[in-house]
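REQUEST ID: PR-0412
SUBMITTED BY: lab tech R.K.
PRIORITY: routine
TASK: structure prediction, single protein chain
INPUT:
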Amino acid sequence: MARTWTVAELAKLLGCTLHGSGEASITGVAGMDQAGPDQLTFLANPKYTHKVKDTRAGAILASTAIEGIGAACLISANPYHDFARALALFYQPPRPAPGIHPTAVIAESARVGEGSAIGAFCVVGENVSVGRNATLHPHVVIYEGAEIGDDFLAHSHVTVREFCRIGDRVILQNGVVVGGDGFGFAKQADGRHFKIVQSGVTVIEDDVELQTLTSVDRATMGETRVKRGAKVDSLVQVGHASVVGEDNIICAQTGLAGSTILEKNVLLAGQVGVSGHLTIHEGAVIYAQSGIGGDVAAGSVVSGSPAFDRGLWLRAITAFPKLPELLRAVRELKRRLDGLESK
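STATUS: complete
OUTPUT:
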């Protein structure tokens, strides 16, 4: 059944200051263009302020009071964050009831914590440890010796390979593979490739989320590690022995070759390629489709392939379409100079 709160109740729940009437009932949340009189919306980016006058929302989260509109304002220090909190008030994904489905296969030596829900056709291997309140949706497979903390959520077709370690409150979306073999081969004298045993593990720390079809490979030796609070988008490849730092954001279709180190608060936009055996230092921002072939300094913002300073890159791409014209001008100047020299 859908939840309903008055605007005043929402302001109290979210810790916001109410500006306007708090009597309207709110049954959900929506974007500014789509919201109706019984919905909450938000204004986080000032460039969209012009849209506020046209919204039909019953209430709006904003950083300051907005005059001349019918909607009540919930004044927030961080409207986008509070909008996310409000969304969680109105919608919680279904959670299976605790228990083990009769088709699941749980090894006798495995330990599954209280309050856990193990779905249909799941497999939990020998000597696996799963903490309290875990949710394993159908067809999740946990290999032998894996250690998993509390409040684990694994969607269908997740695989956690042997001896990998996962912390608390980790979310793995559909099709994630934790601890698949790293890509390691030694070339033999006859040109054939000899597979190098991947004897290391993958470690996923607390509060990490890996989204659909992402792979974090196990190390050849030692470990691959995704540190606390990192968020990794869909279709990302994290190569063996890499380190993804605390609170990193890695967007879709990014690839990290082996032994890449990302320090704290790094942001990689979509389709970034990192060549490996390098360090991207704290707070760096890498724009979409960049190619990283060397270390990136702390706090840098880079673009391009190969990537370099974004400001310089923007000036360079502005010049690219003019290069033929500039080349013609240079040739003409050279022709004239050659003519002067010959006189």
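NOTES: The mean pLDDT is 94.
REVIEWED BY: pending
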